[in-house]
Amino acid sequence: MLNIDNPTVVIVGGGPAGMSCALWLKHLGFSHCIIERNAELGGQMLNIHRINRWVLGWYGRTSADLANSYGKHVKDESIPVIYNAQLASVESTPTGFCLMVDEAGQSQGLTMQVNALVIATGLQAQGIEIFGPSSGLEYLHSNGLIGCHPLDHLDKLDRLQGKTVAVIGGGDNAHFTVKDVARVASRVYLLIRSQAKAQQTIRNEVNALIGQGLVVEFVESEVVGFRPSQGGIEMDLNQSGLPTDSLIVDRVFVRAGFVPNSRFLDTLGPLATMSKLKQGYLLTDSRKRTSIDSVYAIGDVASPHLQSVVTAIADGAIAARAIANDISINI
Ligand SMILES: Cc1cc2nc3c(=O)[nH]c(=O)nc-3n(C[C@H](O)[C@H](O)[C@H](O)COP(=O)(O)OP(=O)(O)OC[C@H]3O[C@@H](n4cnc5c(N)ncnc54)[C@H](O)[C@@H]3O)c2cc1C
Q: What is the model's pTM?
């Protein structure tokens, strides 16, 4: 255990996991701050204007509402936050790490000596890169005909009236998109590379739309080519490596899942060797300690099996208690 007069902890990422950890660290007596790459706290929840049914006691509120409440709580507690900032370099010291933090608009980086680091950088949606270099795709994407964020169809529903739409993906977000779009489009194609993996409730709703002929599903089908065609997009489908169908649609929504925001660690000195799972999720023990001493990882970036607000918040508390266990404050 490290004995320190004024132990300092930096939390990288200001989503629910990072904010929760900051709150707990404050009340456990630590100096700390959050480094957030965006101009606001809240993380993924900020852009989710849907009712969040999974947080006890907060019924009827959207994730964006919750994010704003959490952000306000952090501000009301006077927890320091450095916005528009990212780690530029990390060096090991005898009592922790020396960090260089780049802040947008500042010509000089900020140097900080810290005793522990918490990585709470969440996930990001996968985009068109999953298709590899495919001619026409960049053009279609930059012309707004392909969308990759899980909720980017919601503000376009008016324009999808009577149109033909393809949704690529087999998880919950693909199914929710199909359900929303099928209310207005004349036909929706659901294109799944393997088999549907959505929760049973939403799967049942999409099955009902398939039964009504509003949705046509292709399973074990891979999209291998995109071309601009008749003001829309022509797509080539393969099954088992063989060409099967060609579809012309007005718009495509890709719902290809998420990847953890852990790649930035690869250039950060001692953090580059942190143990990761295959897809890049950070490996931790049950107290949220990573393979590197004094570095902890919480929330979605370290949670391959369950991504949710409540588990992110719980992770923040668990890591704060572990830090209090590992670093004792000299009084
Ligand atoms: C469409 C959608 C719907 C969802 N609906 C629900 C729901 O109904 N109920 C529910 O419980 N959960 C839901 N979730 C999941 C929930 O939003 C996440 O589990 C939760 O936000 C994870 O919190 P986090 O703090 O781990 O990460 P995030 O919310 O991703 O926050 C990470 C933060 O780190 C910042 N960051 C990233 N990289 C860096 C860096 N290098 N330097 C500095 N900062 C960085 C980001 O800007 C962000 O602010 C949904 C997710 C999506 C995408």
A: 0.89
Q: Domains in the chain, start-ordered, CATH in brackets?
A: 2-124+258-329 (3.50.50.60), 127-254 (3.50.50.60)
Ligand 1 centroid–CA 269 distance in Å is 25
246 in helix, strand or coil? strand
The residue whose CA has the least distance to atom 4 of ligand 1 is 48
For atom 45 of ligand 1, which residue has the closest CA? 13
| φ and ψ of 74, to 5 deg | -60, -40
Note the pLDDT tens digit of each residue in 212-231.
999 999 999 999 888 888 77
Q: How far is the CA of 123 from the centre of ligand 1 (A)?
A: 6
- 157 Cα–ligand 1 center, Å: 25
User: Residue 54 is encoded by which pair of tokens?
Assistant: 């999974």
Which residues approach ligand 1 with their CB closer than 6 A? Answer: 12-18, 35-38, 43-45, 48, 52, 54, 63, 86, 120-123, 150-151, 173, 261, 264, 299-300, 307-310, 312
Task: For residue 216, report the distance from its CA to the centre of ligand 1, in Å.
Answer: 31
Question: pLDDT tens-digit profile of 111-137?
Answer: 999 999 999 999 999 888 888 776 567
Q: What residues have CB less than 8 Å from 3, skipping those under 6 apart?
A: 327, 328, 329, 330
Q: What is the pLDDT of residues 144-188, one digit of tens each?
A: 888 888 999 999 999 999 999 999 999 999 999 999 999 999 999
Q: How far apart are CA 181 and CA 184, in angstroms?
A: 6
Phi, psi of 262 (to 5 degrees): -125, -5
In the predicted model, what is the mean pLDDT of residues 292-317? 97
Please compute the mean of the pLDDT values over residues 93-119 and round it to a whole number: 93
Alpha-carbon distance of 81 to 310, in angstroms, equals 22
- C-alpha 28/C-alpha 306 separation (Å) is 27
Q: What whole-number distance in Å separates Cα of residue 187 and Cα of residue 160?
A: 10
Q: Could you count the other beta carbons within 10 Å of the beta carbon of residue 141? A: 17
* 3-state DSSP assignment of residue 114: strand
